[in-house]
Every structure is written in C-alpha cells, then in structure tokens.
Specification:
The protein has a 6-stranded antiparallel sheet with strand order 1-8-5-10-3-2, sandwiched between helices. The protein has a 4-stranded antiparallel sheet with strand order 4-9-6-7, with no helix packed on it. It is an alpha+beta fold. It has one domain: Jelly Rolls, CATH 2.60.120.
C-alpha cells in the first residue's frame, strides 16, 4: 500500500484531486460487489426509473445488510489517506453506492461556491474506466478561487434534467469542449477530490458502478460551521431528489460507531444536522 508523500499532498492541494492505486484488494472488491448487487436489487424494488441525464440510482451503504460497505468510512487505509491529505480532524457524513446508465455527467461541483467548509469525496469505481467509457474528468485547480467562482459566472454548470442531445450549459460549451484531465482507473483504485472541484464524465455505458464516501473537516470558525450546516441540508435535499430508498444512517451503523474508536463522529453528525435528533438515542455522546 503506497504511502502518501509530501508531493502527493502538494498535488492534491494544488490541483484538487488525487488517484491512489490499489487501495482495495481484489478480494475486498469481490465482497463489495456482492453487497453492491444486493443494494441495487433492493433499490430497483423501490423505484425503476433512473434520475436525469445520468439515469442514476443511489442508495446508502450504512446499514447491516452490507457490512463491508458499511465499514468503509473507517477502513484503516482509506482513513489514513484522507487524514493525511486533509491534515485536520475529520468525520464522514455519507457513504453511498451509485449506478449510472446515461452517456454523460454534466459539468458541476458537489459544493456551492459560497460555502466555506473543507470537504472531500472518495470514490471507488467497480469497473475499468477511461476517457471514452465514463471516467471522471476534472478541471485542475478549479476548487481554488478565483477560478471556482469564475466558472460559475462563466455558466459552466450543466443541466442534469435533460438528455445528452439537449445538454444545456449557459457557457454554450459541450462537455468535451472543456479542456480537462481525465482519469483512468481500475477496480481498487481510489479517487479523492475536493467537493468544490469542477468535474464531469462522457462516453459512459450502462451499469457504471461506484461507491463514494464524503468526509468533512471539523469546522474551526463560525463561517465554516454555518457552511457545514448548509452542506447537511444540501445532502438531505439530494437524497430526496434522487429518491433514496432508505435514510443515510441506520441505527445499526450508529450503534457500531458508538462502540468504535470513532464515536466522536456522532457528535459532529448531530451538531451540524446530518443526523436528526430521533436517530441518536439519548442525543450526542
């Protein structure tokens, strides 16, 4: 398992993303695929139409039906990498499985420009992907100001509500007209990126599978705290829009974390509104 070097950390801070090879082993991927298939089956029983241009299905992994996926947020290698790159006290606030069946993902960010918190997404793709088969495309450095805001003002954000032939962006640019870095990944590789970075994909086929975990830095200022509360609201709105079949956090996962070395995560999830009061028996720890 590759150690994160100073050069890796500098790359991540400057460009906003990093690919780390072979973080998960083939046996680990096999177990994850089995649980992923079960989660997808249950999601299709809940609803059968994928959302938007991406034709996507999404569901939470934080339940007793998928113990390997459920434990990914505190898997030792993953957590070590994230802590090294973020250099702060952190906590996870979601762990999802995602299935994409459309030909593209619009240019977008996962965090609004006016939010002040530092959060990242970790993604594991369960299929071999490149620039022609739906691999991630990044605009390097676009998590940084002023470029991040300039791209919002430029109108780069695309619509996910239409078909690819009707792709709409105020910038007037098609997805592949934007100069970008594309990722080539194999199952087991880990992609981590700042939520503010602009990203997209193109050329994807049906049944593109990935697993994602979002982590946030614990806020140190009032502005960061308020932004994190906004991120919690955004996360819940996204779950509603994408028709998640179950809540993000099950009581099973909460009880597992309570007895783990990471029990302080629950205080953060409660404090900033990711977990509602009724989920935490007895309130924060």
């Amino acid at each position: 398992m590759k150690n994160i070097t100073h050069a890796d950390k500098q790359f991540f801070e400057m460009f906003g993303f990093l690919i780390i090879r072979n973080v998960l082993s083939r046996p680990e991927i096999k177990l994850i695929e089995k649980e992923y298939d079960y989660g997808f089956k249950k999601t299709l029983e809940h609803h059968s139409n994928g959302f938007g241009m991406r034709k996507q299905f999404n569901w939470s992994n934080l339940n007793e039906m998928c113990p390997n996926l459920c434990s990914l947020p505190y898997q030792k290698n993953i957590l070590r990498i994230v802590k090294t790159l973020m250099s702060h006290k952190i906590f996870p606030y979601l762990c999802n499985s995602n299935n994409f069946n459309g030909p593209a993902t619009e240019w977008h960010t996962d965090q609004a420009a006016n939010t002040d918190c530092f959060a990242v997404k970790v993604a594991f793709y369960l299929d071999e992907l490149d620039e022609n088969s739906g691999g991630l495309r990044f605009l390097p450095c676009s998590h940084r100001e002023p470029l991040n805001s300039d791209l919002w003002d430029f109108g780069l954000h695309g619509s996910n509500e239409t078909d690819i032939k009707d792709y709409q962006s105020k910038s007037g640019l098609e997805i592949d007209q934007v100069p970008s870095y594309y990722c080539r990944t194999n199952p087991g590789d880990m992609v981590i990126f700042n939520l503010k970075i602009w990203h997209s994909s193109l050329g994807g086929q049906k049944n593109r599978r990935n697993v994602t975990i979002n982590y946030s830095k614990y806020p140190e200022t009032e502005s960061e705290s308020e932004s994190l509360k906004e991120l919690a609201i955004q996360s819940k709105q996204t779950m509603k829009r994408l028709n998640f079949p179950a809540p993000q956090f099950s009581n099973y996962w909460i009880e597992q974390v309570k007895i783990s070395p990471h029990h302080e995560w629950l205080n953060s999830l409660y404090e900033f509104g990711f977990i509602e009061n009724n989920y935490l028996k007895g309130g924060p720890m």
